[in-house]
C-alpha cells in the first residue's frame, strides 16, 4: 500500500488544528508510515496494543475494564478527548471506517472547545477547576484546559471542586450542540485536533456493524 504523501498529511493536520477537524483521502495504513517518518509518536489505545486500534460498540458486560463502554455500553458516549488519563495525551486522532463496516447510522459527534465557541465564563472556569485524573497509583491532579490543550473524559476525570463540576455539567449539556459526522465511504480519514475538540458517539443499535479504525499520535512535527 502506498504511503500517504508528506505534504498531504501536513496539510490535513494543519487544517484540523485551524478548524478543529479535517478530512483526508487515504488510509491509516499508508498514513502511519509517513507520520512516523516525520517524527510523530504513536500512542496505542493500551500499552502493548497495535498502532491502529479498532473501535466498535460493545455492551457493558463485554467491555474492557475502565473503558467508556464499561460505563455507557451501547448508549451514547459523552463528549471526551482521547487519552485524557495520560500525562501526555495524543495531539491528533485519525479515524476511518473499516472496510465492509457500516458507520453511517451511528455518527461521531464533534464539539470544538475554544474561547469563541464556549464563551468567556466557561473558558476561564476550565482553567480553574481541578480534577483527579486516572486511576490507581498513577493518579494526579489536573485541569480541563491549559495553554497547551483541552483534556476531558468523565470516565477518568473526577471533579473535585465547584469549578470542575461546572465544567463537567457544561460538557453534558453541550452534547446536543455537537456536529454530526458520518462516513459515506471507505478511503476517507477524519483528522481531529485532540487538543481542542471533544468528540462523542451516538447510541448504537444492538447488532450494529459500526467499525472504526483509530490512530493516535503525539505530533511534535513542525
Describe the structure.
The chain is α+β, with helices and mostly antiparallel strands. It has a domain at 6-114 and 178-218: Clavaminate synthase-like (Double-stranded beta-helix). The chain is 24% helix and 26% strand. It contains six helices and 13 strands. The protein has helices spanning 6-19, 28-37, 68-72, 115-118, 120-126, 162-174, and strands spanning 21-25, 41-42, 52-55, 77-80, 92-97, 108-112, 130-133, 140-143, 157-159, 179-181, 188-193, 197-201, 212-218. The strands form three sheets. Strands 1, 2, 3, 5, 11 and 13 form a six-stranded antiparallel β-sheet that branches. A hairpin with a 6-residue loop joins β7 (130-133) and β8. The radius of gyration is 17 Å and the shape is globular.
Write the H/E string, N to C.
HEHEEHEEEHHEEEHEEEE
Largest sheet: 6 strands, antiparallel
The number of helical runs is 6
Output the CATH homologous superfamily of the domain at 6-114 and 178-218.
Answer: Clavaminate synthase-like
Q: Which fold name corresponds to the CATH topology of the domain at 6-114 and 178-218?
A: Double-stranded beta-helix
β-strand percent reads 25-35%
First-to-last CA distance: 26 Å
Total DSSP E strands: 13
Return residue spans where pLDDT drops below 50 for at least 5 consecutive residues: none
Describe the global form: globular
Share of helix, binned = 10-25%
Structural classification:
alpha+beta
Radius of gyration: 17 Å
Amino acid at each position: 500500500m502506498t504511503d500517504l504523501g508528506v505534504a498531504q498529511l501536513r496539510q490535513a493536520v494543519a487544517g484540523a488544528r485551524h478548524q478543529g477537524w479535517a478530512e483526508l483521502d487515504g488510509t491509516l495504513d499508508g498514513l502511519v508510515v509517513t507520520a512516523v517518518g516525520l517524527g510523530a509518536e504513536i500512542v496505542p489505545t493500551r500499552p502493548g496494543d497495535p498502532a491502529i486500534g479498532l473501535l466498535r460498540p460493545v455492551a457493558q458486560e463485554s467491555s474492557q475494564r475502565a473503558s467508556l463502554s464499561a460505563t455507557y455500553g451501547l448508549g451514547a458516549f459523552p463528549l471526551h478527548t482521547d487519552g485524557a488519563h495520560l500525562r501526555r495525551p495524543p495531539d491528533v486522532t485519525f479515524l476511518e471506517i473499516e472496510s465492509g463496516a457500516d458507520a453511517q447510522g451511528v455518527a461521531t459527534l464533534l464539539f470544538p472547545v475554544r474561547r469563541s465557541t464556549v464563551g468567556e465564563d466557561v473558558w476561564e472556569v476550565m482553567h480553574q477547576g481541578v480534577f483527579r485524573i486516572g486511576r490507581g497509583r498513577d493518579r494526579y491532579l489536573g485541569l480541563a484546559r491549559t495553554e497547551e490543550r483541552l483534556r476531558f473524559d468523565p470516565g477518568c476525570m473526577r471533579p473535585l471542586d465547584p469549578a470542575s463540576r461546572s465544567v463537567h455539567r457544561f460538557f453534558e449539556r453541550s452534547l446536543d450542540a455537537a456536529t454530526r459526522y458520518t462516513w459515506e465511504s471507505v478511503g476517507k480519514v477524519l483528522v481531529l485536533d485532540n487538543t481542542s475538540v471533544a468528540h462523542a458517539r451516538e447510541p448504537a443499535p444492538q447488532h450494529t456493524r459500526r467499525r472504526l479504525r483509530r490512530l493516535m499520535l503525539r505530533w511534535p512535527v513542525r
